[in-house]
Every structure is written in C-alpha cells, then in structure tokens.
Amino acid sequence: MECKKVIKLIQSFMQDEMTVGELEEFLQHIDQCKECQEELTIQMLVTEGLISLEAGEDFDIKQEMDQKMQLARRQILWHKEMDWLTLGIGSVSMCIAILLIVWLVI
Ligand SMILES: [Zn+2]
Fold first, then answer.
1. Which residue in 41, 84, 97, 101 has a CA-CA distance of 20 to 30 Å to 12?
2. Is residue 97 one of the residues assigned to a domain?
3. In a domain, 82, yes or no
4. How much distance in Å is there from the Cα of 83 to the middle of ligand 1?
C-alpha cells in the first residue's frame, strides 16, 4: 500500500470503517513507515483528543494509539481464525457427504 492511500484511509481507520483486508495492509504499512505513523498520531490527536477534551477526560495519545492498534490486530486475527473455522466446517461436511454417498452406494 502506498503512503497516499494510507493517509486517505486514516479517517476510515478511526471510524472503524475499513474492511479486514484493508486493515491488514494499512497496519503493515504503518508498522514500517514513520511518516504515516506520525500522520496517524496527529490525526488521532486532533480527532480523539478533541472529543476527550470536550468530555473533560484525560487524554493519553500513546495509550489510545496502542489500544486502537491492538484492537485492529485482534480483529484481523479473529477474521483469520474464522476463515480457518469455515474451512474446517467445510471439510467436515464434505467428508460426511462422501461417507453418506459411499454408504448409500454400498
Ligand atoms: Zn507511509
């Protein structure tokens, strides 16, 4: 993913409006790119910081970022596990179907 696209996606990231595929590429890029990391921090500071300020809460950008990143990573992991689960259920149903056919034929 290019920096331009990552910057564009920051807003979607903060509003949790990204697909898991996008999210994975996005995080991969953020991990490696200092400039986009900075951009994300600034945008988060502006958006989330203002909300917290209005609510009169303390705002710790580092903690907020860590939390958001962790949540996103968990989302990706969960999605992958679900893929495996679907695959597993698929194979099991396939085996049962084959066994049934074999049983019916014999
Ligand atoms: Zn970048």
1. 84
2. no
3. no
4. 29
Distance 82 CA to ligand 1 centre (A): 29
For residue 26, name the pLDDT band (cuts at 50, 70, 90): very high
- Number of structural domains (the chain) is 1
Distance 60 CA to ligand 1 centre (A): 24
**Domain assignment of residue 90, yes or no:** no
Please tell me the distance between residue 65's alpha carbon and the centre of ligand 1 in angstroms. 17
Contacts of 41 (CB under 8 A, 6+ apart): 61, 65
pTM: 0.71
In a domain, residue 31? The reply is: yes
- Ligand 1 centroid to Cα of residue 32, in Å, is 8
User: 75-86 as b/e, with b when 16 or more CB fall inside 10 Å?
Assistant: bbeeeeeeeeee
State the residue range of the domain holding 70: 3-76
